[in-house]
Amino acid sequence: MPLLDLRAYGPALLLTLACVTVSTTVDAQQRANTDTTRRTAPRTAPRTAPRTARDSATQLGTMQISGRRDNLVGLATSAAQGRIGRVDLRQRPLLREGELLEAVPGMILTQHSGDGKANQMFVRGFNLDHGTDFQTRIESMPLNLPTHAHGQGYTDLNLLIPELVDHVSYSLGPYYAELGDFGSAGGATLNLVRSLPRALAQVEGGAWGYRRAVLAGSRTRGAHTMLIGGEAKGYDGPWQVAQGLAKRSAVARYSWQGREQSLSLLGLSYLNHWNASDQIPERVVDVGAVNRFGQIDPSLGGSTARHSLSLDWTRTTGTTRTQLEAYAVRYDFELFSNFTYYLDNEDGGDQIRQRDDRAIFGLNLQQQRILPLGGMQHLVRYGVQGRFDDADVSLARTQNRAFTDMVRADLVQQGSLGLWTTIESRWNRWLRTTAGVRGDGYRFDVVSDRPENSGVRNATLASPKASIIVSPTTALELYVGGGLGFHSNDARGTTIHTDPVSGDAVDPVDPLVRSRGGELGLRLSGARDLRTTVSLWTLRLDSELLFVGDAGTTEPQGRSARTGVTVANFWRPLRSLALDGDVSFTRARYLDEPAGAQSVPGALESVIAAGVQWTPWSVGPTGVVRLRHFGAHPLIEDNSIRGRSTTLLNASLGVPVRGVRITASVLNLLGSRGRDVQYFYASRLRGEPAGGVEDVHFHPVEPRQLRLGVSIGGWGAVQAPE
């Protein structure tokens, strides 16, 4: 199969290239550089009083973003949008890199198969698996991988170097035209730093062979800045089989800032390999055959590599801002798993190998401008997003990581093109609206080792969005919004006709799955940096059909509906003390199942996150305590078996000593014996019945541990606001 079939993709590529001169893409609000004054959307910084339409800015302004205390009244288009800056992120005690996203209200990230594998993600009543229905990007580059060997939308955050993440922008719900595939539950963008005030050198050590080193620095000459950074990390963990994690990450970035234009070239490189610690059945722990940190199959593990180069060019002239982004990614992945042990193969076991080898190319373009219309000025944004994946994915049976036979192997070329536009209008001092629409076209081309599973599918979808924002006072905004979204299904599921395991005939799935969402929201900005948002939301999916990478086939889940409420708070009662607390409650149900069998397995019903940050002096010691809780939840449709709740408390203390910062972090401070993930399914151990035993399978949280770190330079001590 050719790398790029121009006959199939030529028209789409030509259309994309033709748009270069007229459009660019990325949400300017999400690209504001935290704690740094940078160019933003064509608005001025918030004033003490709301602007009328005639007061709207006619020149691009600037806005300083600091973190969760920022006042987004007059800027956000829903109560479910926000930004978390480096001041907040740097103070979070982290067990894993992906936990940076737990700053998003209601979001939980866990692990069930080794720290080199993508996190298990939960938000808004979704068990997102490894990322389906939540769009995640590093600046312009999407992290979600469609038609991935392990799971649709696979999102690996382990490549991050947390110290080099500048800020996180998030938007929950399908109400934003710039969010496309995997954006039904919302999306987040991780923005990296462009410079450091001082070179950073940091080393850390802790229990179970934890060791980590970070080096980074930047140099600026005139308008030119070069930043280079790297991380090396190793960790064995408390597992019976040492994890042997070996992570290597590197960042290189060149930035140029002119009077009207800016340019960034960003290179990322990531390598990792590990031994896995998959979930284990509850029954073996209950009888003492295996301890909580043991394994049934000791030969599991994986490796991954990701190398990327991205370009970001921006030009701002008067009331017009144009942005062009392009990226190329080389990705390689191999994973050995065994979830059912000896259910299918009593002698050799059920171990499988999943491989994914792909190249990704993308182009994002956007233009935004002030448009005078009807005596008023409107902010108009429009853009195009193009992406092409050329993937070689396979599923094989193995024993002790040795190949035994192939289940299926596929060459997949998947191309997509999305066009979108949004207009934001301020009608008077208290009313503004946004209206948008996006259109998406997809082409799936699958060449399978079974000819009957090969084929080509095309699909298109239009998704309108709208919001009304009312500002009764300068400190309060009310939101009513809604929109349509979607996620793509695995390309192999769209052309499948024969189950590669059983040989039975199966029906292909729809390429694109529609979602519908709505929200009522409130945003309050009070004294002493008090920030409160409340979101009452609902979301429906036409189908939760998913391609099951472990079996090589599709599994129908039916239509579903989710409703919930999320309350997020930030408050600084004293200059030296900051408090935050987020609470999220969700109800998720299947719509086509009989009464009493409508619960969605794995859908978290309650999530609580809270923290206290103490900074007694403007530059000096800091103390942080953070609570993270998710409640009991159904593991099967009739809700008769429920997963246990999990509560973790983490704490850290940082002290500067003669130019060196010493940090001590205690993870799982209370020694909780909670669980990261829980599933209910049938598995078989040696000597058990041929049909296996249905049981809860779980992965425990890691026990209490101390990590010590010493750092010089970087952003230095956290400063309390003046």
Strand content: over 45%
Residue ranges: pLDDT <50 for 5 or more in a row? 1-66, 718-722
Quote the CATH topology: Maltoporin, Chain A
CATH class call: Mainly Beta
Total strands: 39
Radius of gyration: 25 Å
Total helical elements: 4
Can you summarize the main beta sheet? 22 strands, antiparallel, barrel
Distance between the first and last residues' Cα: 61 Å
Class by SSE composition: mainly beta
pLDDT averaged over residues = 88
The shape, in one word, is globular
Helix coverage percent of residues? under 10%
Q: Any idea what the CATH architecture is? A: Beta Barrel
* Number of structural domains: 1
- Could you name the CATH homologous superfamily? TonB-dependent receptor, beta-barrel domain
3D architecture notes:
The radius of gyration is 25 Å and the shape is globular. The longest helix is centred in the N-terminal third of the chain and has 13 residues, at 6-18. A hairpin with a 6-residue loop joins β22 and β23. The strands form seven sheets. The chain has a 22-stranded antiparallel beta barrel. With 722 residues, the chain is mainly β. It has one domain (6-702): Beta Barrel (Maltoporin, Chain A), CATH 2.40.170.20. Mean pLDDT is 88; it is low at 1-66 and 718-722. It has four helices and 39 strands. GO terms for molecular function: siderophore uptake transmembrane transporter activity.
